[in-house]
Amino acid sequence: MRLTVVANRAPISRTDEGDWAPSVGGLTTALLPVLSELGGAWVAMGEEPDLPERQEYPAEDPDFLVRRVPLSQEELDGYYYGMANSVLWPLSHYMVQHLDLRDPFVENYRRVNERFAEAVIEEHREDDVIWMQDYHLMLAPALIREAHPEAVMGHFWHIPWPAMEVFRILPGARELLRGMLGNDLIGFHVEEYAKNFIESAEVLLGADVEDGVIHWQGREVNVEAHPIGIEVERFERMSASDNVKGEAEEVRDEFGAESLVVGIDRLDYTKGVLSRLEAFEEFLEKNPEYHGKVSLFQVATPSRTEVESYQQLKREVDEAVGRINGQFAEDHWMPVHYRYRTYTQEELCAFYRAADVALITPLRDGMNVVTQEFITATTDRGVLILSELTGAAYLLPEALQVNPYDQSGLAEAIRKAIEMPPEERRERIQALKATIRELNVHQWADGFLDRLTAQRDASSGQRAPSPERNSSPERRVEEQSTGELVDGGV
Ligand code: ADQ
């Protein structure tokens, strides 16, 4: 059995020295060891015009093929910035006010999905397993299914699937659903999204559903929760290193606050950075005794800077930071420290470790792996304030959960977190750490593939044992910095 991964982004990129190396980020970390072991292909868009369409990797002793789908600027604008980032992204996060519906977006999305499907069809061999990623590729599965009725195909959706009544707002909702139903297995982070998907298929397409399985055109489509994790052990090691401990102390010294509240996000309107700043402002207004003692350190990674709503958000965040600091700053105390840039994973780890409180308050989020990174990196002192509108919240009841739209509630949670007694902090974070240790990005990949191959074996009646996959640490891609997920939705 070989594996074909189909994702928007390629798993390798050029280094400063001009060589090729694995890109950094959760998805590559999870899937490259498996792909290297099984062999096969990774199909992705060609991000630059001069890149080869077919590239064996590593060049000296190839494990797999990178197959690129080159896109024109018009296709990229319509498919990626348009349909994916200005339609499917806001809709799936219940932010219909950001919807930008334009015909060329749909047309280019269709065209690019056809081109991805053609590439997969060309590379496909009998017995291959195909694993699609995310909301960029909703139409390709049905097209591949037409050409290869026997193909074994799964799809992981990294963002929320909204309630049926929200999904049906989208013109073309049914076409997109039919595309997705070309798969044999569809994975989401939590049950709630799986239920929403099933209801969408049932109500909008009239599909039959029995015991959570969708019956569609003579096939079964399984829809399941497969919560993603991080590389816990590597994060634990990194966090315990002298380097990170030293950097964490430097951060605390630099800011000088008794209590440091930290927020780390891609600058995206779904992450709730603006309302978080406003809640921190209310906290300062209501609790003057904490002036000079509590600071918020907000790190925001530039993201989708070509899209107007992201440019607008940046202006609003800049303004809010200026307003809060202008009003409250004192000679030796700055209420908000704001950094608009990308950091290495080691640096992020130091920030997590320096924090007394992590403020993770998306207005909606599929999972939110920053939560998992914080829980893993922090000591017994760390308190997690977590939006209840994230996938992570379903798994982490011991966090201080908040409604991110409730500004006063959020301001109150900040006070509660700062005043939480050490014993309660320790109990909560230990429970959270235990949960996160059970979620692991390698197990996530193995678990999804096992379900997919089991389904293939069941339908072909052969039930061959799943091939041994060597996912030992030596085979795993070592990462120095982060960045892949900062694109959002992988
Ligand atoms: P994202 O929307 O990107 O991912 P998230 O899960 O929080 O959201 O992952 C962000 C990643 O970017 C983290 O690994 C984090 O460390 C990194 N990052 C954030 N700020 C950074 C900075 N300043 N510098 C460098 N790195 C930074 C999508 C979905 C999520 C889902 C993931 C995985 O939107 O809901 O959890 O995919 O499925």
Condensed summary:
45% of the residues lie in helices and 18% in strands. The chain is an alpha/beta fold and 490 residues long. 49% of the residues are buried.
Task: Write up what this structure looks like.
- The protein has 490 residues and is α/β, with parallel strands linked by helices.
- It folds into 2 domains: 3-229 and 443-459, 3-Layer(aba) Sandwich (Rossmann fold), CATH 3.40.50.2000; 232-438, Rossmann fold, CATH 3.40.50.
- Helices cover 45% and strands 18% of the residues.
- It contains 17 helices and 18 strands.
- The protein has helices at residues 26-38, 73-92, 103-123, 140-147, 164-167, 173-180, 191-205, 232-240, 242-255, 273-286, 308-328, 345-354, 369-377, 391-395, 407-419, 422-438, 441-460; strands at 3-6, 12-14, 20-22, 40-46, 54-57, 64-70, 129-133, 152-156, 185-188, 208-210, 213-216, 219-225, 259-266, 294-301, 336-340, 357-360, 383-387, 400-402.
- The longest helix is centred in the N-terminal third of the chain and has 21 residues, at 103-123.
- The structure holds adenosine-5'-diphosphate-glucose.
